[in-house]
Amino acid sequence: MTARLVIIMGPSGCGKSRIAGALAEAMAAPMLEGDDFHPPVNRAKMTAGEPLTDGDRAGWIDAMLGAIAEREEALVVLACSALTRYVQDRLKTVPGRETRFVLLDAPRETLIARMTSREGHFMPVSLLDSQLEALDVPTGAIRIDAEQTVSAIVRQIAAALEH
């Protein structure tokens, strides 16, 4: 069996963390939260409403890659925006792991509603449009309607990963 990295991706508010956690639980796999790997300077920049550049993302990606490489489980689930080709290509470089991307699709209005209803998150709504503009859907990504229930989304992802 090939070791896999499943990346639950999409813009802020699409439900990455919730879905990645539920999928990891359903598949008895570890879940890594991409936001946990941002250095304080990146968080401060985003909190101030400034989008990150690929240069800003390099250290963040390196930290995620290191954490993934340390995992011995056959499946690792990562919640990560992975919006740009640069991030996607770098995340596919974990030796010995096949990488699958799962894009959680939701309308802008849904994303805004979700972002404004959560408390204590560093990502301001003002950055949503820059995220949507930066989104480059990877070839072969599993696309899922993020407005469904968590259980329905997890079932669809699990079924798609079997193929």
Question: Keywords, please?
Answer:
single chain; 163 residues; alpha/beta; 5-stranded parallel sheet; 7 helices; 5 strands; 17% strand; globular
Task: Explain this structure.
The protein has 7 helices and 5 strands, in the order E-H-E-H-H-E-H-E-H-H-E-H. The protein has 163 residues and is an alpha/beta fold. The chain has a 5-stranded parallel β-sheet, with helices on both faces. Helix 1 (16-26) crosses helix 7 (150-161) and helix 3 (54-70) runs parallel beside helix 4 (85-91). The longest helix is centred in the middle third of the chain and has 17 residues, at 54-70. The two termini are 13 Å apart.
Strand order across the largest sheet: 2-3-1-4-5
How many H/I helical runs?
7
On the 0 to 100 scale, the average pLDDT is 89
Order of helices and strands: EHEHHEHEHHEH
Which residues sit in consecutive blocks of at least 5 with pLDDT less than 50? none
Structural class: alpha/beta
Helix content: 40-55%
Silhouette: globular
Strand portion: 15-25%
What is the distance, rounded to the nearest whole angstrom, between the alpha carbons of the first and last residues? 13 Å
Give a quick summary of the entry.
This protein is of the alpha/beta class and 163 residues long. It contains seven helices and five strands.
